């Protein structure tokens, strides 16, 4: 697979993603807030419009949306090597921690850890800031603000992935009908194309590479279950379970847990106990980065020593591979679509829906899970102040919140 010339380097993308991998607590929705702060505000690799467009694309695709978003930004910056750098940097810290935990311990009670509660509260402030900033850019008028609020309501009231997909599709149609013949859509298309070009998103992947990626995705989805049935290999069975989970699940890391539990928990060889599975999930809440790195723990917990490490790496690679293949398959067509005037009008609606979905996630599960007392609310306000008024780095806000949680809660 070949990509055209890009502005950045593997090392540059890796360093940026590694910082996010070390500091991005709070799940996929919070990660979007961290990503925007780092890639849009601080580094200016892309603008809010391009960021929201890519976020919308990753919401449509199965797999870990935040990791896919990082890979997409990496591709725009440094080609396919940039995607690899973005994935490694963002996933490596949590993957190593989870794998080490699997190889050294199988239980840990984190339910009353004050520092963990502090990390959750930091995520509340990060997402709140992202919603506020993106709303001003992507939902600045009455029609789009109304679409954002309607999308938030749909995401909260309609259960499952349909609660997110329906507003994206509906607001896209409404945006097309409202803005399709307006000058704002034409101006938005021109501006997005020009600014996106500066961010490197007009130098993506060839159509040949795109189709090859989709073919490989489909072949693995069909052939891995057959290979697992014909072979008694634990490694192949683990790769099959992880790959299918990464291919077929929408909605982020928490949604993937039931599928992995059904596949991997039980009695007999190659299976984990329910207690071991639950212990790993508890530990996964305490580490930054994508929850999909939970797969590294599951593989590592199946055996000890080097074999456990090998299983962990197999599960990790298999669960993320579908995301990369689908992203490579979709990006070239997404880029051409978003430059079209009619498509840009629809994307104006889709972007408003993205703001609404982010607003809904701020309430449930982030706010409901984290803010339970006046002490919690005070910490959230202070973290928001650190980020929005004092303009400090996200990792500084996360560190402050963790220490505050440890001392106060």
Distance between the ends: 51 Å
Number of helices: 17
Structural class: mainly alpha
CA radius of gyration is: 21 Å
Total strands: the figure is: 0
Dominant shape: globular
Summarize model confidence as the mean pLDDT: 83
Q: What's the SSE pattern?
A: HHHHHHHHHHHHHHHHH
Main sheet specs: none
Q: Give the DSSP E fraction (strand runs of 2 or more residues).
A: under 5%
Helix content: over 70%
Show unreliable segments: 1-5, 189-202
If you had to describe this structure to a student in words, what would you say it looks like?
The chain has 409 residues and is mainly α. It has a domain of 118 residues. Helices cover 79% and strands 0% of the residues. It is globular. The N terminus is likely disordered. This is Chromate transport protein. Keywords: Cell membrane, Membrane, Transmembrane, Transmembrane helix.
Question: Key terms for this structure?
Answer:
0% strand, 79% helix, membrane, 17 helices, globular, 409 residues, Chromate_transpt, disordered N terminus, mainly alpha, transmembrane
How is the topology of this model organized?
Layout lengths: L9 H14 L4 H15 L5 H13 L4 H40 L9 H25 L3 H16 L4 H18 L3 H16 L8 H24 L3 H15 L4 H12 L9 H11 L9 H8 L3 H34 L2 H30 L3 H16 L4 H15 L1
Helix pairs in contact: 1-4, 2-4, 2-5, 3-4, 3-15, 4-13, 4-14, 5-15, 5-16, 5-17, 6-7, 6-15, 7-15, 8-15, 9-10, 9-14, 10-11, 10-14, 12-13, 13-14, 16-17
């Amino acid at each position: 697979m070949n990509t055209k010339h890009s502005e950045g380097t593997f090392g540059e993308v890796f360093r940026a993603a590694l910082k996010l991998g070390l500091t991005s607590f709070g799940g996929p929705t919070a990660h979007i807030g961290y990503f925007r702060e780092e890639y849009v505000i601080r580094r200016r690799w892309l603008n809010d419009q391009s960021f929201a467009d890519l976020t919308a694309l990753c919401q449509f695709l199965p797999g870990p949306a935040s990791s896919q978003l990082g890979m997409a930004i990496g591709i725009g910056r440094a080609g396919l090597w940039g995607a690899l750098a973005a994935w490694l940097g963002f996933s490596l810290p949590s993957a190593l921690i989870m794998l080490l935990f699997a190889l050294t311990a199988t239980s840990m009670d984190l339910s009353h850890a004050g520092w963990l509660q502090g990390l959750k509260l930091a995520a509340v402030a990060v997402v709140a800031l992202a919603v506020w900033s993106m709303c001003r850019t992507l939902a600045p008028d009455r029609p789009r603000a109304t679409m954002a609020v309607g999308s938030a309501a749909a995401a909260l009231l309609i259960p499952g992935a349909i609660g997110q997909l329906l507003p994206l599709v509906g607001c896209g149609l409404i945006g097309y009908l409202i803005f399709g013949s307006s000058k704002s859509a034409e101006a938005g298309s021109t501006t997005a194309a020009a600014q996106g070009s500066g961010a490197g998103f007009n130098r993506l992947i060839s159509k040949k590479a795109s189709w090859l990626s989709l073919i490989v995705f489909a072949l693995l989805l069909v052939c891995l279950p057959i290979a697992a049935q014909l072979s008694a290999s634990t490694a192949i069975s683990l790769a099959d379970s992880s790959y299918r989970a990464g291919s077929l699940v929408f909605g982020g890391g928490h949604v993937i847990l039931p599928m992995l539990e059904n596949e991997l928990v039980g009695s007999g060889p190659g299976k984990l106990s329910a207690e071991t599975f639950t212990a790993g999930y508890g530990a996964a809440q305490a580490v930054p980065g994508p929850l999909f790195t939970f797969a590294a723990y599951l593989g590592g917990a199946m055996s000890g020593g080097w074999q456990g490490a090998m299983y962990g790496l197999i599960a990790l690679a298999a669960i993320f591979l579908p995301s990369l293949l689908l992203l490579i398959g979709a990006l070239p067509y997404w880029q051409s679509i978003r430059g079209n005037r009619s498509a840009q009008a629809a994307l104006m609606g889709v972007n408003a829906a993205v703001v609404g979905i982010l607003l809904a996630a701020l309430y449930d599960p982030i706010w409901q899970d984290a803010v339970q007392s006046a002490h919690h609310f005070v910490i959230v306000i202070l973290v928001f102040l650190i980020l929005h008024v004092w303009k400090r780095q996200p990792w500084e806000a996360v560190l402050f919140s963790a220490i505050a949680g440890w001392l106060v809660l």
